[in-house]
Amino acid sequence: MKINDMVSALEAVLFAGGEPVSSARLCEVFEVDDETLSKVLKLLSNKLEDNNSGIKLLTLGDSYQLASRTEYAEYVRRAFDFKRKTPLSQAALEVLAVIAYNQPCTRSFVEQVRGVDCSGVVSTLVEKELIEERGRLELPGRPLLYGTTATFLRSFSLSSLDNLPELPKDVSPDAKQLTFDDVVENENAESEQKEEVTINE
Question: In the chain, fewer beta carbons within 10 Å around the N or the C end?
């Protein structure tokens, strides 16, 4: 297949997909290696830019997707009569930030960082597909681990988690920062205490 034909074919595949498509899947479909795929993706991105298209190519980690440009969002909303989505609360943004910078992590970790119960907020973020389950921690009770999704990257215009802004340094040099290992130890201790109570009863 000629390179120009491949660019058009790639555009068709991403347009038809509607969801992010992994680079591995695209390489399989077009029978090319990663280097060739990168070149074709670059050509497609340039083509859309040069034609002043209302569509742009999004890079979401190791996946790619076509999406309408943000400057035309109002027109898209009008055309399809989209209802404005409820904006995230301050609590949801805080929980999302904790997970984004510490993933994969448990809800208990998030709650110990914030100091309040976060079960409702975590459920909301899962429903909005901004976070997802990433397996379980190998401790008694096997608590769920959470991490961010491609929807999170797309929503915040990030190509990858490497593009997250750097966190500000602690103002106090003596401030102790809670780590995931601290929470693992705490969860382990809590589980042991529950087992002792059960045995005593």
Answer: C
Provide the edge-to-edge strand list for the sheet that holds 63-68: 21-22, 63-68, 55-60
Tell me phi and psi for residue 150, to 5 degrees: -65, -30
- Let me know whether 98 and 161 are in one domain: yes
| Residue 77 confidence (pLDDT) above 90 | no
Rg of the chain, C-alpha, whole Å: 22
What is the reported pLDDT for 199?
A: 39
Give the residue ranges of DSSP H helices in 18-106.
23-30, 34-50, 73-80, 90-102
Final residue before a domain boundary, out of 23, 47, 80: 80
Q: Could you give the CA distance from residue 154 to residue 132 in angstroms, rounded to a whole number?
A: 15
Res 61: pLDDT: 86
Give Cβ neighbours of residue 173 (< 8 Å, ≥ 6 apart). Answer: none
Note down the domain range covering 61: 3-80
Tell me the two tokens of residue 171: 């103002």
- Residue 85: inside a domain: no
Tell me the per-residue pLDDT of 152-174, one tens digit each, with 9 for 90 and over: 998 888 888 888 888 776 533 33
Residues 28 and 98 in one domain: no
* CB atoms closer than 10 angstroms to residue 162: 7
Q: What is the CATH number of the domain that holds 164?
A: 1.10.10.10
Report the number of distinct structural domains present in the chain: 2
